[in-house]
Amino acid sequence: MKACACHILVKDKALAEKLKSQLDKGGNFQQLAKKHSICPSGKKDGDLGEFSPGTMVKAFDNVVFTKEILTVHGPVKTQFGYHLIKTLYRN
What is the pTM of this model? Predict the structure, then answer.
């Protein structure tokens, strides 16, 4: 199985919740990723490309491979910070 996902990574849970609220009201994921994400993927609109289970940390994988696609999930805490995750597709 493979999936394609994008995310916004921030250090602070309050900021993650604020961004999630903006997204829930129709905010642009790509623009928010570019502006706020501390992950290098932020420069690419938060796009992580296609990957297999086990590539990302467990909490991240759980969202990408089990939760509803095209929905923003999170904040999801990992050792890197707080993620807002949107799975684009799974096959």
Answer: 0.96
